[in-house]
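User: For a benchmark we're assembling, each entry needs the component sequences followed by a predicted structure for the full assembly. Here are entry 17's components. Please fill in the structure.
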Amino acid sequence: MSHSPLPETERTRHRRLREQGSRDRAQLDAILAAGFVCHLGVVVDGCPMVVPTVYGADGTNLYFHGSVASRSLVASPDALVCVTVTHVDGLVLSRSVFEHGVNYRSAMVYGVPRLVTDPAEKLAGLRLLTEQSAPGQWDYARRPDRKELAATALLALPLDEASVKIRVGPPDDGDGPDAGLDVWAGVLPMSAVFGEPEADPALREGIALPAHIAARRG
Amino acid sequence: MSHSPLPETERTRHRRLREQGSRDRAQLDAILAAGFVCHLGVVVDGCPMVVPTVYGADGTNLYFHGSVASRSLVASPDALVCVTVTHVDGLVLSRSVFEHGVNYRSAMVYGVPRLVTDPAEKLAGLRLLTEQSAPGQWDYARRPDRKELAATALLALPLDEASVKIRVGPPDDGDGPDAGLDVWAGVLPMSAVFGEPEADPALREGIALPAHIAARRG
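Assistant: Structure for entry 17:
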């Protein structure tokens, strides 16, 4: 896993001032590691299409299922995609509506995904993708057999061209004229949490909830 | 607010079987009402670009800030966009890795956004956008003045062409051969919750947390 800064390209140069842009590789890896659903943008017949899908990332590649993007990627396997991962961390409640905003961490990755054909990489990529959302399940559940592997198209997007945007901290209008208003200002934090596991109604009797799932309750 | 079914177009026809597609208007409205961050997809010089941004929706239009998409939308104001709103509701932990998945609700809206120039619609759209993430704040915080309104570009995307995808319920492999395995299966629910409000360190003394913000704690 490289720690060189991400190269700046025309697409990843940050244009706006209020959000904190970065091309820091550690930040990119941290944002990708903190989630498991991305929004995949592809161009189909000149039109943008944004599809949510699960992913796994290892610092070098971001893996996702090829079927999600099949309409465009099968037709043009060398087409550029944009994958965006966003974590919403809170509402920024300023004194003025104009200064309202969101605390968030977001990563955008651009590139041409590659169809993974090497069996070892495909298995490793699927493991990564599974473990990113459901750690422990690769070793616990039944792994894909030969037929299932053949039925799965896996794509690898290199993490070479990416940018990160982060907003943290309190409102920005605490030192301006609005600070004199009788208006509460601050941040309402937000996070995604796991609830109580719900057993499949079809689950056979006597199968206990494994510790690696139970441990995820928020 | 119309309750006619959403028209089926080449882009919104559902191609995959395992996810439940719909063009039901009530479902679309419910998914849009349940969030406040969307992923906006635009095409810039032939490349897809997916940007997270806040929105407000009223059953007829989806409003978002024009600045987010300025690079493409200012250049080509009649360019198609795709706005996707996704709620992740849980992990589907099946007996086999192959059947793992996510419970989610997702809406995709396609169209050409219109720059809102009518002052009354602009104010109503900004109110909608503010209230969607921070209900109560439009009447509580300082509203935009003439200068702030002029500095804000608001876009309206008609909710005419849209599709909805939803996955709910337990794993799909409860009635297949894998049901005999000694593997726990079920759903790990997930939701976004608000935490304890954090006052701006610059907040003047004596300003109490208003009830409409306090009430949102999860």
